[in-house]
Amino acid sequence: MHSSMMILASGSPRRRELLALTGWDYSVQPVDLDERPLPGELPRLHVLRLAEQKTLAAARRQPGGVVLGSDTIVVDHDEILGKPRDASDARRMLMQLRGREHLVLTAIGVFDPQTEQVLLDLCSTQVPMRAYTEDEVEKYIASGDPLDKAGAYAIQHPGFHPVDGLDGCYASVMGLPLCHVSRTCRKIGLTTDPNMPQRCQQALGYSCPVYRAVLAGEV
Questions:
Q1: Does 78 qualify as catalytic in the annotation?
Q2: Distance (Å, rounded) from C-alpha 84 to C-alpha 100?
Q3: DSSP-H helix ranges across the chain
Q4: Of 34, 71, 76, 148, which is the active-site residue?
Q5: What pTM was computed for the model?
Q6: What does the pLDDT look like over 27-50, one tens digit per residue?
Q7: Which residues, 6+ apart, have CB-to-CB distance to 214 below 8 Å?
Q8: SS3 30
C-alpha cells in the first residue's frame, strides 16, 4: 500500500494532535458506541473489543480506506474507571488514584482494506500518580477538564500535573501510542516518517524510554 491517507475513528482532539505527528494525511470519522464492559469482561479484552468495534464501524462508513480506531481505559485493581458522571464522581476517582500506581491500557485497531481484516495492538502503561492535595483536586474539577477523561484526569494538563515519574508511553496515556500505531501499520505497508518518535517526544516534552523497544516489537 502506498497511500498515506488514513481515517481516524475518533473525535478526540488529543488523538488528532498525536496522529498529525506521523506525517500522514487523515480524515476524522467519530464513532459512538456503548462502551460499558460486558459482564465478567476483563479490562484487556474490553479495551481490545472496543478498539476493534470502533475500527469496523468507521470502515463500514468509508469503504476502501485504512482506518485507525483506538480506545483507552484506566484500570485500578481490575476496576475500569471510565469518564466520571459528574464532579462528585471525578473527585472519587482522583482521590482513589492519588499517590498510587494504576494501569492505563490503550488498544488500537487498523483496518486493512485489502484483506478487510482488523489488526489489533495493545499498549500497557503503569502510571504513578503524585500525592496531590484535596485543594488541587477541587481546582482541577472546577476547570471542567476531568469530566470527559477516563479516570478523571489528563496526564498533559499544564496546571494539575497529576503524574509523577512516568516510565512508559506518554502518548498512550493521552490516548494514542504512536509507536504501536507505526509498527502495526508497517504490516500493511504503511510507514511513518522515521523521525516520528523524535517529533512525538519534542511535542510532548518527554524523553521516552520505551520507543525503540516498541518499534522493534520487543514490548
A1: no
A2: 19
A3: 13-19, 43-61, 87-97, 134-143, 170-174, 178-186, 196-204, 211-215
A4: 71
A5: 0.95
A6: 999 999 999 999 999 999 999 999
A7: 123, 169, 177, 179, 180, 183
A8: coil
